[in-house]
């Protein structure tokens, strides 16, 4: 890893473990094994480092989602693959958790990658759902954009329920329930939609 | 308000604004206008105060939910009334947010009221959905417990999406999408379920 990469990865770790307020430039340098001069050579300061760290986390989640969403299969199959992929449920979503960090949310530059990741995900899912509607796989009563927001919300809220219970069961139930609703909204035979 | 109430309300405010780690016994006393001796007369310390504060918050949310869930109407009508009730969306859910407070989640006594509130809510919703299934209002393909988890997750995740966007729109969309799915799962005429 380059010095710059080590600094970004250290910032990601500290943001995750201690939040923005608990992440000091000194701690970043120590964890990265990088001196102060070198850090300020690469980054203007903590906000700049945090932006690079948050942007990288958001891009990783986006790539992870695309792995299933861009895969083969029908709309419901791709969404199912995405919802069912292995996750560290009790740790939660590293992007979603940033919405609970008041310092990150208060800074428009730091909030932007979080907002953009969720906007991208909702749009991607809405596009897939729209394909499913066009293909007659889903009944035309569903609104793709609203349904896409429900899919993302169920995941994010599933993490909340799992953390509350200190168990993954409620997350799995929320996903099961969503897939049950999507199945109920599916047409019995593709192409048969009115 | 009694001295005890003032201490609990001050603890709730501070937990909300600063989290567990940022809530000091001294700050609680100052905000409540209560001396140290009086505080320790009523509570054994910060964990005891936090437990009383979290329990009260959880009970309030439960009573708020019951106001709609225990109201008149069909299963879908009552769930719709609950989902559509006025909320301070950008502030988020005071109980859900506690799941992101590492000190609260690490203490089983402090986590318990959070877990119990969500367990109660899921069970209450599952009961209502089961009524809807029995009445033939919903198609029998739905699993009441799983669908109930999806309803609670959509709300909690809706807050996450709204905070990420600094706008209530994504929350409203997630609710719209969920109600669209529930409508799609409804039987066209009550009593006609196979």
Automatic annotation (TrEMBL), chains A, B:
Gene3D superfamilies reported in the protein's UniProt record: Tetracycline Repressor, domain 2
Keywords for this protein: DNA-binding, Transcription, Transcription regulation
A Pfam family annotated for this UniProt entry: TetR_C_13
InterPro entries noted in UniProt: Homeodomain-like_sf, HTH_TetR, Tet_transcr_reg_TetR-rel_C_sf, TetR_C
UniProt GO MF annotations: DNA binding
DNA-binding keyword on record: yes
Stored PANTHER family: HTH-TYPE TRANSCRIPTIONAL REGULATOR LMRA (PTHR47506:SF3), TRANSCRIPTIONAL REGULATORY PROTEIN (PTHR47506)
This protein's name: TetR family transcriptional regulator
Organism: Streptomyces tateyamensis
């Amino acid at each position: 890893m380059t010095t710059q990469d080590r600094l970004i990865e250290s910032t990601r770790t500290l943001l995750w473990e201690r939040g923005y307020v608990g992440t000091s430039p000194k701690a970043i340098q120590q964890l990265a094994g990088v001196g102060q001069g070198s850090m300020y050579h690469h980054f203007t300061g903590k906000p700049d480092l945090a932006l690079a760290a948050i942007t990288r986390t958001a891009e990783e989640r986006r790539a992870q989602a695309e792995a299933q969403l861009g895969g083969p299969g029908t709309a419901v199959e791709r969404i199912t693959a995405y919802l069912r992929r292995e996750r560290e449920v009790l740790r939660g979503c590293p992007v979603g958790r940033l919405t609970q960090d008041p310092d990150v949310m208060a800074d428009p530059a730091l909030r932007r990658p979080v907002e953009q990741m969720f906007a991208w995900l909702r749009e991607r899912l809405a596009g897939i759902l729209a394909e499913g509607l066009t293909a007659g796989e889903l009944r035309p009563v569903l609104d793709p954009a609203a349904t896409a927001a429900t899919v993302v919300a169920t995941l994010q809220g599933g993490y909340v329920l799992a953390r509350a219970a200190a168990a993954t069961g409620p997350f799995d139930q929320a996903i099961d329930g969503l897939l049950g609703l999507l199945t109920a909204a599916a047409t019995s035979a593709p192409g048969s939609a009115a």
